[in-house]
Amino acid sequence: MARPLDGIRVLELGQLIAGPFASRLLAEFGADVIKVEPPGTGDPLRKWRMLHDGTSVWWASQSRNKRSVTLDLRDPEGQDIARRLAAEADVVIENFRPGALEGWGLGWDTLHELNPRLVMLRVSGYGQTGPYRDLPGFGVIGEAMGGLRHLSGEPGRTPVRVGVSIGDSLAALHGVIGILLALRHRDQQGGQGQMIDVALYESVFNMMESLLPEYSVFGAVRQAAGSSLPGIAPSNAYRCRDGKFALIAGNGDSIFRRLMEVIERPDLAADPTLAQNDGRVANVERLDAAIGAWTAQHSLEEVLDHLNEARIPAGKIYDVADIATDPHYRAREMILDSTLDDGTPVQLPGVLPKLDATPGTVRSRAPTLGQHTDEVLASLGLDDAQRAALRERGVI
């Protein structure tokens, strides 16, 4: 089956999360991703989080479908090989600090002159321009500057971070969008590539919905609101009789009326002041109290049964054990059974987005360090003796 990105070659010069996650998504839809890693150590992600036989199990997900080439980008010979690889690539992805690639002779101007068709994604904390461009910026800093951290947690308490590196992942998604747009433009405009500048903080800020318009018009500074959704009601987490929480979104007008009937409050369903969202927001504490009083009388399972029957959006809070055993995840192929290099069974996330005619696939396991170095360099014309000499000098 033909895949959407068949024939597209991606040179991944990044490490850890943002750049590699972007290239992982491209690889799942057919792109040939050549991942460049430092000799000896490899991508630091190989040692992040929980390790099996010395390698992170995260690596099995983040680097599937890729080819690994070891190359010292600080060495002139390594830089020359990287330029040769870029000359044959459609896309280069990097997430070093701004200026790092320029110092290695691998900046945008150099690579664009070498390969005018090239599309280059550059991910950094603050972008390639501006007064903060040279500051170090990881995902958590981007999440804070982008406005997300201020809104996370309970009112009056220390802001908390989201439990995953959401800033890096959002930057990767914006980067993939940019790459696909640039490739489309290249097809339309006679083969001209372009550079895509993605900042972590901007990727987070782009998710902040009405935050800025509300401030500019009303001077309102949105604050953390715990489990509720400010300005939209009712939408909250409600404790059930068994101590578990039900997430209930009764904020649609007709949904709200059905919810009030389920919790046996027809008086609230008929109240004209609650017919639309603005009136419900003004009475949110009264509504939350009524819903909470009802959920406290029932187990979580009973609450969800009643609400699902009435077509009211509701659910429980999943942990990973819930995810791994959930039949809907399985039915949607969002949990894939695979194996690590030593045959150990491992479950990995499925492929998104879901295309019905040309779906993404997992074609190969995450590579061992430098697994494809000889294969890729031989394709550039470097013979056995040349590769042996480079290996002896630590370049590969």
TrEMBL record:
Keywords: Transferase. It comes from the Bacteria. Pfam families: CoA_transf_3. The keyword Ribonucleoprotein does not apply. One of its GO terms (molecular function) is CoA-transferase activity. The keyword ATP-binding does not apply. InterPro entries: CoA-transferase_III_domain (IPR050483), CoA-Trfase_fam_III (IPR003673), CoA-Trfase_III_dom3_sf (IPR044855), CoA-Trfase_III_dom_1_sf (IPR023606). This is Formyl-CoA transferase. It comes from Paraburkholderia phenazinium.
